[in-house]
Amino acid sequence: MSKKVQMPSENREISKTPGHWVLAQLGKRVLRPGGKELTQKMLAGLNITSTDSVVEFAPGMGYTARLCLQQSPKHYTAIEQNEQAAEIVRSYLDGINQQCQIGNAQNTGLESNTASVVYGEAMLTMQSDARKSEIIAEAARILSAGGRYGIHELCVTPDEIDDTKKRTIQKEITETIQHPAKPITPQEWKQLMENNGFEIEYEAVSPMHLLEPKRMIDDEGLLGFLTIAKNILTKPAARKRVLGMRRVFRKHHTNLSAITLVAKKKETNDV
Ligand SMILES: C[S@@+](CC[C@H](N)C(=O)[O-])C[C@H]1O[C@@H](n2cnc3c(N)ncnc32)[C@H](O)[C@@H]1O
């Protein structure tokens, strides 16, 4: 990117800025809970090739978009609700078969049964139960039968977790990231997919280490990590936010994980 691009939520007071945009402003590009490693597992499960028509929900800073484009899909369409993020993603696109539209994943306006792959990361967790279902149903609508859908989200564990504990975790994450967040259990994620006509084909989990130094170096590279670290040290308001988020993630580390699921749209859509 040559010209200075405006970052999402750049003009908002930092204490009220959603956590993912605080991290993006500090230089973080990987904004999903399982990092690059779980993204790569999701992409391996999706097995994108040059014959695929791919739709990405909520590409954010375009990190996975670039990995996907390396596979030269026939079509790549992203649906992103944030204008600045969409502008950043567009800077990676090339040609009429690659687009990023500003819109909502629950109502993409895309034609039914036309995509062979849909994926979205760290975007369902922040939705209500009803909206999660609407987005998954929209993925099912735009996919052709047999199409693959990949998600990469936050989950609370174990499946049998006490309900009060689960709600406490959801509440504390919501408060610290300054954005609604409702992570659910692995079983609940799978159930939501199955309820919307998908068959789970692949599942992987990893620790929620989004803000741990080792994961940050793995995700952003040493130089990227040092840039973020310098920004954290020199921006006290943002530092407070990052440390606040990390405190909550650490507090609940035994009950928080990242999950990726890759599922296939059933041949007969008998949901
Ligand atoms: C935590 S960021 C994740 C970005 C990127 N997927 C990643 O993993 O690095 C959440 C993203 O979801 C987008 N988003 C949230 N709800 C959305 C919706 N209903 N439709 C489209 N985009 C949405 C936000 O604008 C933001 O880019």
Automatic annotation (TrEMBL):
Keyword Methyltransferase: yes
Gene Ontology molecular function terms on file: methyltransferase activity
Domain of life of the source: Bacteria
Keywords, ordered alphabetically: Methyltransferase, Transferase
Pfam families: Methyltransf_25
Species assigned in the record: Photobacterium sanctipauli
GO biological process: methylation
Name of protein: Class I SAM-dependent methyltransferase
Domain Methyltransferase stretches: 54-147
InterPro entries xrefs: Erg6_SMT_methyltransf, Methyltransf_25, SAM-dependent_MTases_sf
Signal peptide: none
